[in-house]
Specification:
The structure is a homodimer.
Chain A (H helix, E strand, L loop, with lengths): L2 E9 L3 E7 L5 E8 L6 H18 L4 E9 L3 E2 L4 E3 L9 E2 L1 H9 L3 E4 L1 H12 L8 E6 L3 E7 L2 E2 L36 H14 L14 H9 L3 H25 L3 E5 L7 H14 L9 E4 L4 H20 L1
Parallel strand pairs in A: 1-4, 4-8, 9-12, 12-13
Antiparallel strand pairs in A: 1-2, 2-3, 5-6, 6-7, 9-10, 10-11
Helix pairs in contact in A: 1-2, 3-8, 4-6, 5-6, 6-7
Chain lengths: 320, 320
């Protein structure tokens, strides 16, 4: 009998990553490409499917693809849709679960990309054994997976956990969602670039709009490491905002721990230190010095793949 | 065989309310007194116990007190403690579950007063059949009970659901918790009085400190009804802040509905209308016009009594 493999697919604002995962959590094959190379959902899904087929073919062994798990921003597990995703080029409501099922012929599970990463963290990372924790993904935007009593919180419609779209600064920075002051405008790869530009403008280093010059979060990180004060302060400010916001997260959920994952989290202590200082300053007394904020225990590129594959496996068992 | 009754006790910042409740949710007897008449936890608990004994004696019928359920602010279900309650005169950590057990000799369950009200709403109010909702109590402070998948969210340590202590205005009004900008400094009985005073000061109607003159939230309400513009605007501002904060609540939890309960909620549409307008303006697209904000379906004085008694009954069944 062939061994079951589960596809874990992590559709992010920048990159789409896929892996073929066995029930023990080992990734046998993986692929990555730029999400923006595919202008709409059908062309992206077609490419993912072709990639999975060639991945299955490339493996030496007797395997079968049992199910597909997809993690994508702004998605509903129960409805099987991605809706109004601010960081994808897709518009409106996209029924991606159905589209994947039709092209692949196997059962498909859909969840938010950050929820998938939280499931991965719980099964294979530092959250092993925890039943109440929060995982924050700091990528193009800010995503979150909330685990309460050992289960992801989906809410009534499946869209719970949009911590990146909590309003933290009244009338603050404009967000892709159409509102102002969302957390992800401050604490994300794009947010820290905005902060860095604001600092340069306010200190008179740069004048005018500055929008033309492209600078990435990674470059801000490298500048900070090489002693650029403005870049260092940009990390401080980002951590200050994140710690402030996470104090509110704890007031809602009282998690055991909060994990940070994704591009910006790779900055490590440069981001983590100011975040923890701000969190301890802002959190309610009852939680001071009690809640660990730490980096994910999984490689950034693996958490959501592993979690999405694990979700596909779990839902397949529930069907049978 | 005697019929079982369950004591439901609601310890609030202003009043303590108790009831003797049968398994069908009927309140056979009730009592109310000012919490501040008792300077510390032992004297309050002693008085509650004496009141329960006289209540049991007063009933015509063959009853026995099977268990006691207590709802109190800043309390942990798992630890049995009330900790650093900003709106009670008690200091530090108070082991009130143990104290109630020793004086009464029956099993005692403890939960946050707002969580107790949420349980009451789920069993006997407008939240019947709902599995994901949030109840907000607008009393002396702002409390909240979060229900996810049909169960109250306690978090890792039992203290989850402190929405009143989420920070909404950076460097905003000073709070009893020692921090600045907590939601309950804006959206509560004491918050609306502060807002009313600020409006009078800013419009020059009143000069100076104005702290000596006592005015209650009820008086602000009556003034608003009688055409006082400052009082009317105070309700508008309170609703604006509450709607803004509840947009964040929905980003975390995606509840089916949000219920308002307590003294300030008795203002009805005067508070509800500006709250809903602000909520719809501030909530993320995906939830616009989808989430009902409404008043509790239970009399204010009953929700937490019923919920605390129901919790006591549920935990007693789990023990047996």
């Amino acid at each position: 009998m062939p061994e079951s493999l589960f596809a874990g697919i992590d559709i992010g604002g920048t990159n789409t990553r896929l892996g073929l995962v066995d029930p023990s959590g080992r990734i046998h094959w993986r692929d990555t490409f730029a999400t923006s190379d595919y202008p709409d959902a059908p062309s992206l899904i077609k490419h993912i499917h072709e990639s999975l087929i060639s991945g299955m073919r490339s493996l030496n062994g007797n395997y079968e693809l049992s199910a597909i798990g997809v993690g994508a921003p702004n998605s509903s597990n129960s409805k099987g849709t991605v809706e109004h995703a601010a960081n994808l080029s897709w518009k409106g409501v996209v029924r991606i679960k159905k589209m994947f099922q039709e092209i692949s012929g196997v059962p498909v599970s859909l969840t938010n990309d950050a929820k998938a990463a939280a499931i991965g963290e719980m099964l294979y990372g530092h959250a092993k054994g925890m039943t109440n924790f929060v995982l924050i993904t700091l990528g193009t935007g800010l995503g979150s997976g909330i685990i309460v009593n050992g289960e992801p919180v989906y809410g009534h419609d499946g869209f719970a956990g949009e911590i990146g779209h909590t309003l933290v600064i009244p009338h603050g920075r404009s967000c892709g969602c159409g509102r102002k002051g969302c957390l992800e405008q401050y604490c994300s790869a794009s947010g820290i670039v905005k902060t860095y530009r604001e600092i340069l403008r306010s200190t008179g280093v740069v004048q005018g709009n500055f929008e033309d010059e492209t600078i990435s979060a990674r470059q801000v990180f490298e500048k900070a490491l090489s002693g650029d004060e403005a870049a260092f302060y940009a990390f401080n400010y980002t951590g200050e905002m994140l710690g402030y916001a996470l104090a509110n997260t704890v007031a809602y959920l009282a998690p055991e721990s909060i994990f940070l994952l994704g591009g910006l989290a790779n900055a490590g202590e440069l981001l983590l230190n100011p975040t923890i200082i701000s969190f301890e300053k802002n959190v309610l007394n009852v939680w001071k010095n009690k809640i660990k904020i730490r980096l994910s225990g999984l490689p950034e590129n693996d958490a959501a793949i592993l979690g999405a594959a694990a979700l596909a496996r779990k839902e397949l068992i529930n069907i049978k």
